[in-house]
């Protein structure tokens, strides 16, 4: 079962942390927290992440 990390998804989307945070409307500090502790991501924010990185949420959090 392959699981893509938040940071890997950002890098694969060719986005800097600053650009990804800007696109999601969050602070760089919050993005870094989410990258190191995905369990801290509120469920309402998952859509922003999915849209910004153009990957299915289940791949980010559960694997295929």
Explain how this protein is built.
The chain is an all-alpha fold and 64 residues long. It has one domain (6-61): Orthogonal Bundle (434 Repressor (Amino-terminal Domain)), CATH 1.10.260. 58% of the residues lie in helices and 0% in strands. Helix 2 crosses helix 3 (28-36). The radius of gyration is 11 Å and the shape is globular. It starts with 5 loop residues before the first helix and ends with a helix. The mean pLDDT is 86.
**Distance between the ends:** 6 Å
Count the E strands: 0
Report the C-alpha radius of gyration, rounded. 11 Å
Order of helices and strands: HHHHH
What class would the helix/strand composition place it in? Answer: mainly alpha
Task: Kindly report the average pLDDT value.
Answer: 86
Oligomeric status: single chain
CATH fold call: 434 Repressor (Amino-terminal Domain)
Please summarize the sheet with the most strands: none
Give the overall silhouette. globular
What is the number of independent domains? 1
Treating each run of at least 4 consecutive H or I residues as one helix, how many helices? 5
The fraction of residues in strands falls at: under 5%
* Unreliable sequence segments: none
Features:
single chain; 64 residues; 434 Repressor (Amino-terminal Domain); 0% strand
What's this, in brief?
This protein has five helices and no strands. The protein has 64 residues and is mainly α.
Give the arrangement of secondary structure elements:
Layout: H1 6-12, H2 17-24, H3 28-36, H4 46-53, H5 57-61
Helix pairs in contact: 2-3
